[in-house]
Amino acid sequence: MATRPVTEEALVERYGPHLNLAPPGGWQRDGDEVDRLVRTHCCFCGQQCSLYLKVAGNEVVGFEPDYAFPFNEGKLCPKGVKRYLQGSHPDRLHDPLERDPDAPGGFRTVTWERALSRTVDEIQRIQERYGNDAFAMLSGVSLTNEKSYLIGKFARLALGTANLDYNGRLCMVSAGAANKKSLGIDRASNAWDDIPRAEVIYLAGANVAECAPITTSYIWRARDHGAKLIVQDPRVTPIARTADVFLGLKPGTDSALLGSVLHVLIARDWIDHAFIEAHTEGFDAAAEAVRDYTPAWASQVTGVPANRIFDAAELWGTSETGMLLHARGIEHQTKGVENVMACINLGLATGKYGRPGCGVTTITGQGNGQGGREHGHKCDQLPGNRDITNPEHRAYIADVWGCAESEIPGKGLTAQEIIEAIHADEIKGLLSICFNPLVSLPDTAHTRAALEKLEFYANIDFFLSETAQFADVVLAGSLHEEDEGTSTSAEGRVIKINQAIDPPGNARKDWQILLEIARRLGRGRYFDHFVSTQDMFEELRVASKGGAADYYGVTWQRVEDEQGVFWPCPEIGHPGTRRLYEGGRFYTPNGRGRFNAVSYRDPAEVVDDEYPIWLTTGRVVSQYLSGTQTRRIGPLVTQYPEPLLEIHPQLADRHGIADGDLVRVTSRRNSMTLPARVVTTIRPDTVFIPYHWAGAQAANQLTNRALDPVSKIPEYKVSTVRIERLGERRAVVDSRDTRLYTDANATSPRER
Amino acid sequence: MEDAATGTGRADVGELYAGRDDVVFVIDQSRCIGCNACVAACAECGTHRGESMIHLEYVDRGSTVQTAPMVCMHCEDPTCAEVCPADAIKQNEDGVVQTSLKPRCIGCSNCVNACPFGVPKYMAEIDQMMKCDMCYDRTSEGLAPMCATVCPSEALWYGTREEFTQRRQGQLLSDWDFGNAHITTKVATVVTDREPGPLDVLLGREPQFRWQDDPFALEGRG
Questions:
Q1: Which of A27, A210, A246 sits opposite B211 (nearest CB)?
Q2: What DSSP state is assigned to residue A120?
């Protein structure tokens, strides 16, 4: 039974999140004790900035910038600077745990033998009774390419389940689906060094300053060359503050705005007829869909002045080069795929593909969101971005894996659908790794009820995340710096993650845990040849060969020698592909880029008398995703300690809300209480809550489970709420209140 | 490979600036994204680990996301040092105004009140003023200051004047008027045009409409 063994408070007391405020040994530790500097990359977002970790013994004690890596040249955001504080952490799991309501903190330490045999017994019991697909697996793209590949193979051949999906389902799938359908390949169109070559930069739903901070330096380099900046966002984000054109639209109206831009491009003949003729298809249908989308019409739908829509179209249409960067703002919607297609239409219509300074690209959010979605832990995909329903693709992978094609299960359920299937009693058991769905999926109460219905739940992780609190067995896995492998950055650059330290105590590397489960399930013959993660990469190379995401020409040695290699890279002698679509050659079967007709439709939920305010959610720069790591790193928590409700003064005044007041926010799912931050930098019909916190502070208590029909991404960015003032509260905390922590031995505020 | 047009063209900053006397530390507040990386990195420096000597200010969060990284401007004639009753603030031969010396500092906060830029901070926990010393342990060895190294948007920037001119728009200015007081700083800021002379911080900007004044066109002004 997957329920919390003791109260949430008791679990938090024992397993955190507690704040790690200082490196091991304290701040005064002598720097001369550092044994070595290990060059690696940040464990957080998709930019994958390079840095050095300072190591003393088996502990990471600090960081040093890496000036030489071309992507970030030493630059880091605060998460990259402080990431090392997740190691040597009081909350770190050192041993396997088993649920025990009588033990302090609700779990007892057990041997690996006990933890693994219990897990394998439960997998076999559930699968024998209910069928293989009744045991599901959820995984995460903080994992390296090697582990992603292993998990894809493990779920299909060791568990024998179709139901494997991953947390990239909440991140990249809208962009992936649109890119594959329109352009035939799911990757950023350009290496980031094309951004400074652009004359115009169009950011659509991309808060780059907070979610991809180093990308701002590329945008500023473009502006140093005279580039103009267009920003489309319901909030004046830090990068929007100096934009040339700001499109402050209502949440969920992106396709109307983008369609109107296309309408103006066509009406003014700011389109590249020769490119459309030679390299694309479907233009007429796309043009017909926006025939009536005048700026005046779009202004009514989006709330953006018509002249600004025209200005954006003029900048994009009359510039020789341009880059459109989009992110979760337009992708976290029930129209996520259509929104991305509307962006692609703007690129195709103006011939802004395959040339220096030209491209339309998503900004991958998660650390290995790019590589992770290519090599196997997506429910409908096999390595190399192959299609699990395609007989030829299945046969090829079966040959690589040495199994019968029939042994590979078919297409499974997506992450949110797995939750629904648990509710429907179709899925009874779950294994998860590096995914915190209780915090990161919409409608928290619904997710919690699903966990409680599971007959058995095992979790592989390094901290006891909010989801792991519900586990029957917790298998203590490895941190990013405790293993080696590769990841693929937002640019499509395969890079090397180097091991700095060994897992502490009895914790094990994730892949060793998975291999042992596979052996105990009697499927060792498919996995026993993996002695190192490099062995997995070598098999991945072959498995991806000839696929849409072809890594065959990438080797660990090349990655080290060449500061990363860009896929597609089909042969050892191939230089890698920094810029896709050169010469107007797309990866679709006929080589043409496909326009798609995108008509505007409403989001799943629209404002009404009962819920009259739009709610949108997003990130702050000092926190990352569900906060499993960043809510344990003291300086990052101090920077932005709790979620705040951003609200415009006009809306606040109507409800009698002053800055710092406590506000109850209620949606059709649930309600939550948090302090207000009254600012003029958000639309007066919209409120914003960052989503990194858990429990009573979780924004996803409010969000809607509605999914994009194609990508199955939830509509985090658009739901409707009502608000009421509850009372006064202390002033809103901000970074000015950062204190100096001089007690190096303090592990949590309660102990200081 | 990245080329000069798109990359910063830097290999190893340490090698690049060792022994150079034409380097300049630049603040361009218009590029600040408020991420706090500068503050986070400052606290990692070897000589004052765990304590940041710089801070980040929201100018007026109610009406803008404008933030300002507050590094020391390193005045030619530092007011903070002039008003210090304990002679705890020293200026070295390179013009770097150092943080207060312990045990001289008596925590009186004269410097905090006197600094025209609002840089020094009194730290109650240690009963001492702390402020930026331009990462003297790094810059003296040719490395960029920690904050300018990590700054994602290059709002804080360190390099040669020639490099700045080649790479970036705007001009460097180190002269400020605070009413009748004229101040020259070692740290430069970025202006569109140096011609009008020192920045007079007491004068408001020209009243012309910008979209930032009405970002959501609530007053009907797109």
A1: A246
A2: H
Residue A211: pLDDT above 50?
A: yes
CA distances from A717 to A234, A250, A440, B73 (A): 10, 11, 13, 41
Nearest to B55 among A214, A226, A736 (CB): A736
DSSP, collapsed to helix, strand or coil, labels residue B210 as coil
Query: What is the C-alpha R_g of chain B?
Result: 18
Token pair of A137, please? 């697996």
CB contact under 8 A, A75 and B151: yes
Task: Provide the sign of the torsion angle of the four alpha carbons B96, B102, B103, B109, taken in this order.
Answer: positive
How much is the average pLDDT of A244-249? 98
Asked whether B27 and B158 are in contact (CB, 8 A), the reply is no
Residue found by looking up tokens 């404002």 in the block: A607
pLDDT tens across B117-168, in order?
Answer: 999 999 888 899 989 999 988 888 888 999 999 999 999 999 999 999 999 9
Q: Please judge whether B153 and A63 are an interchain contact, meaning their C-beta atoms are less than 8 angstroms apart.
A: no
How distant is the Cα of B92 from the closest Cα of chain A, in angstroms? 25
For residue range A327-346, list pLDDT tens digits in order.
Answer: 999 999 999 999 999 999 99
Listed in sequence order, the residues at least 6 apart from B204 whose beta carbon sits closer than 8 Å to its beta carbon are: none
Q: How far apart are CA A524 and CA A387, in angstroms?
A: 25
| A50 pLDDT higher than 60 | yes
Q: In this structure, what is the dihedral angle of CA atoms A91, A92, A98, A102, given to the nearest 10 degrees?
A: -20
Whether the ω angle into residue A690 lies within 30 degrees of 0, i.e. cis, is no
Cis geometry, peptide bond prior to residue A568 (ω within 30 degrees of 0):
yes
Average pLDDT, chain A: 95
What is the model's pTM? 0.95
Asked if residues A412 and A426 have their Cβ atoms less than 8 Å apart, the reply is no
Cα distance between residue A228 and residue A242, in whole Å: 10
Q: Is A564 on the interface with B (CB under 8 A)?
A: no
What is the rounded CA–CA span in Å between residue B30 and residue A88?
38
Q: Cβ of A81 and B37 within 8 Å?
A: yes
Amino acid of residue A336: G
For A656-713, the pLDDT digits (tens) are 999 999 999 999 999 999 999 999 999 999 999 999 999 999 999 999 999 999 999 9
Dig out the tokens for A164 from the structure. Answer: 């494997």
**Nearest CA-CA partner of A460 in A119, A124, A734, A157:** A119
Chain A residues within 8 A of B58 when measuring between CB atoms = 734-736
Cα torsion through A250, A254, A260, A265, rounded to 10: 130
Angle CA(A746)–CA(A748)–CA(A752) in degrees, nearest 5?
A: 50
- Residue A274: CA count within 13 A, CB half-sphere: 1
